[in-house]
């Protein structure tokens, strides 16, 4: 996927060159990479950065709500840049994480018994299992 420069924006966050590079790498890799996978992916760029820098950039994105941190069991955190509300499906055999969208027109209050007026600030749904082949 070709990522354009104007897409490399996080509201409220100053996008340094390094942050842009990490954000670009994350947009190009929709496969929920871990920080070290992103680090490996970026090694052939002209200015490779340290793993610590990659972590720092990711942390800033998560803090600003631009990136979701996905934690499964005790595995290293993975990162998701898809900003539409979705659940994660962790395929146990392959370890792959898939984005699963809500069916159009459904909201969480259709399936969860939430008190009226509840405001959801963060959505984290992870399912585990096996997808049909
Ligand atoms: Zn995701």
Give a verbal description of the structure.
- By secondary structure, the protein is α+β, with helices and mostly antiparallel strands.
- It has two domains: 5-79, Arc Repressor Mutant, subunit A; 84-129.
- The chain is 27% helix and 16% strand.
- The strands form two sheets. The chain has a three-stranded mixed beta sheet with strand order 4-3-5, with no helix packed on it.
- The two termini are 25 Å apart.
- It binds zinc ion.
Quick overview of this protein structure:
Helices cover 27% and strands 16% of the residues. The protein has 133 residues and is an alpha+beta fold.
Biggest sheet: strands, sense, closure? 3 strands, mixed
Helix content range of the residues, please? 25-40%
Mean pLDDT: 91
- Report the CATH C-level class of the largest domain: Mainly Alpha
**Coarse morphology:** globular
Proportion of residues in β-strands: 15-25%
CATH level 3 topology of the largest domain: Arc Repressor Mutant, subunit A
Unreliable stretches: none
**What small-molecule ligands were found?**
zinc ion
Number of helices: 4
Return the string of H and E elements: HHHEEEEHE
Number of strands: 5
Distance between the termini: 25 Å
CATH-level-2 architecture of the largest domain: Orthogonal Bundle
Write the layout of secondary structure elements.
Layout: H1 17-28, H2 35-41, H3 51-63, E1 68-70, E2 78-80, E3 86-91, E4 97-101, H4 108-111, E5 126-129
Parallel strand pairs: 3-5
Antiparallel strand pairs: 1-2, 3-4
Helix pairs in contact: 1-3, 2-3
The chain binds zinc ion (ZN).
């Amino acid at each position: 996927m070709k990522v354009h420069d104007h897409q490399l924006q996080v509201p409220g966050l100053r996008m340094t060159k390094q942050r842009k590079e990490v954000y670009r790498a994350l947009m190009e890799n929709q496969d929920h990479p871990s920080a070290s996978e992103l680090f490996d992916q970026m090694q052939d760029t002209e200015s490779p950065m340290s793993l610590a820098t990659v972590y720092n950039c990711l942390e800033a994105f998560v803090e600003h709500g631009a990136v979701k941190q996905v934690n499964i069991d005790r595995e290293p955190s993975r990162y998701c840049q898809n900003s539409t509300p979705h659940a994660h499906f962790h395929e146990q055999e392959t370890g792959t994480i898939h984005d699963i969208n809500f069916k159009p027109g459904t909201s969480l209050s259709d399936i969860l018994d939430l008190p009226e007026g509840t405001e959801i600030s963060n959505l984290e749904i992870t399912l585990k299992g096996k997808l049909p082949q």
